[in-house]
Design a protein that fits this description.
This protein is mainly beta. The protein contains 2 helices and 31 strands.
C-alpha cells in the first residue's frame, strides 16, 4: 500500500533526511565501528556523502554509516565497490571521481555551488552521471554536457538549493529519485530524447511550478510528482500510455491537466488530493483506473469517463495483511460524472460511486 495519509504527506515535505541513528563523538579523524557498521569521524562529527580517505573513495549514507557492496544501493558494478566500502575501479581527477570503463561520473568531490560538468575526463567521454553523484546541499546550478545519456538513482537527490538545471537532448534515461527533494527547483523540461523514467523523480520538489515533458516517454512512473504542492502547469507528451500510482498525489495547486489520448492506464491515487483540480476529461481508449485515483479532489465539479473503461479498482492489500477499500471519487462531494452508456454507469455504481452523481449523456 503506497498511499500516504494527508498528515504524513504534508509532514514528508518538511523532512528531507533521516534522523541519524548514531551519535559518535571524537576529537580526530578515525574509523569507528559498532554492530550496525563502520563510520568515519571528522572532529566532533562524522562523514556523510562522498569522501576520499587514504586515496580511496567511500560513500557514507545520511545515517553516517559507510556503504559497501552488501548494501546494493544502485552503484554500477563496474565502479568496483567492495566489501570494505572502497570504489576500486574509480579514478580521482581533481573534483571528479570517474569510472573510465563506463564513462560515468561516480562522484563530484568539489565545493563549488555552480558546476559545469566536463564532456571529457582523462580524455574519456563523459556519458553518465552515477547514483548520488551530486547529492549535496551546496549545489545551486549544474550544466550537463550533451554527451551524457544516463542520469542515475538520486543523482541530484536532496540538492535543496538547486535552482537551475537543463537536461540536454542527449539524455535517454533518468533513474528513480534523480531530483527528489530538490526543493528550490521551479522549472524543468524533460526533452524528447528521454524514453525511460524511473519512479519518484521529482518527489517532494515543493517549489516546482512548471513542467514540460516532451514526446518520448510512454510511462509516467509512480510518485513522479508526488507532493509537488506548487505544481501549476504541466504538459504531458502524446507518447504517454500510462500514469503510475500516486503520480500527482498532493499536487494541491494543479487546476487543469490534459491527459493525452494514448493513455490507457491511470494508477491508484494518481490524482489523490489534487484539491484545486476542477474538471477533467479522460481520453477515449482509457481502459483501467486505479483505486481512489481522484480521491479528495475536493474542487472537482465535472469529469467525463469514456465507454472504453473496463476496470475500476476498489480494493488493495494494505499493511499488516489488511485490505483497503475506497472508490474513485471519495471526498469529491460536488462532482458530476458524465458517461456515454448505461454500461459505464453501472461499472461505476458497482465500484461504489453514487448513482445520483452520474449522468448518461448519450
Amino acid at each position: 500500500m503506497r498511499k500516504l495519509k494527508l498528515t504524513k504527506l504534508l509532514a514528508s515535505i518538511l523532512v528531507l533526511t533521516s534522523v541519524l541513528a548514531l551519535n559518535p563523538i571524537a576529537a580526530s579523524a578515525e574509523w569507528r565501528q559498532d554492530n550496525k557498521g563502520w563510520w568515519y569521524t571528522e572532529g566532533n562529527s562524522w562523514s556523510k556523502g562522498w569522501r576520499t580517505i587514504d586515496g580511496s573513495l567511500y560513500y557514507f549514507g545520511s545515517d553516517g554509516y559507510m556503504k559497501s557492496n552488501a548494501d546494493k544501493i544502485f552503484f554500477e558494478k563496474e565502479d568496483g565497490l567492495n566489501s570494505s566500502g572502497q570504489f576500486t575501479n574509480v579514478t580521482i581527477n581533481g573534483n571528479w571521481a570517474f569510472c573510465k570503463q563506463t564513462g560515468g561520473i561516480v562522484a563530484y568531490l568539489g565545493s563549488e555551488s555552480s558546476i559545469n560538468i566536463p564532456d571529457k575526463i582523462d580524455n574519456i567521454t563523459v556519458t553518465g552521471i552515477g547514483a548520488y553523484a551530486f547529492s549535496s546541499p551546496k549545489i545551486t546550478n549544474v550544466t550537463i554536457p550533451n554527451t551524457v545519456t544516463t542520469i542515475g538513482v538520486s543523482a541530484f537527490g536532496s540538492c535543496i538549493n538547486l535552482t537551475n538545471i537543463t537536461i540536454p537532448n542527449s539524455v535517454k534515461s533518468i533513474s528513480s529519485h534523480a531530483f527528489a527533494d530538490c526543493i528550490s527547483l521551479t522549472n524543468i523540461t524533460i526533452p524528447s530524447s528521454v524514453t525511460k523514467m524511473g519512479d519518484s523523480i521529482f518527489l517532494r520538489c515543493i517549489n516546482l511550478t512548471n513542467v514540460i515533458v516532451e514526446n518520448g516517454i510512454t510511462v509516467l512512473g509512480n510518485d513522479t510528482f508526488s507532493c509537488c504542492v506548487k505544481l501549476t502547469n504541466i504538459t504531458l507528451p502524446n507518447t504517454l500510455t500510462s500514469i503510475g500510482f500516486n503520480a500527482f498525489q498532493g499536487c494541491m495547486s494543479l487546476k487543469n491537466i490534459v491527459i493525452p489520448s494514448g493513455v490507457t492506464i491511470i494508477g491508484s491515487y494518481a490524482f489523490y488530493h489534487c484539491n484545486n483540480l476542477t474538471s477533467l476529461t479522460l481520453p477515449d481508449g482509457l481502459t483501467d483506473i486505479g483505486m481512489g485515483a481522484f480521491k479528495n479532489c475536493t474542487s472537482l465539479t465535472n469529469i467525463t469517463i469514456p465507454s472504453s473503461v473496463q476496470n475500476i479498482k476498489t480494493r488493495e492489500n494494505g499493511p499488516l495483511n489488511t485490505v483497503i477499500e475506497t472508490n474513485l471519487f471519495e471526498g469529491c462531494n460536488n462532482v458530476t460524472i458524465y458517461v456515454k452508456s448505461e454500461t459505464t454507469k453501472q461499472l461505476l455504481v458497482n465500484s461504489g460511486v453514487s448513482a445520483n452523481k452520474i449522468i448518461v449523456t448519450a
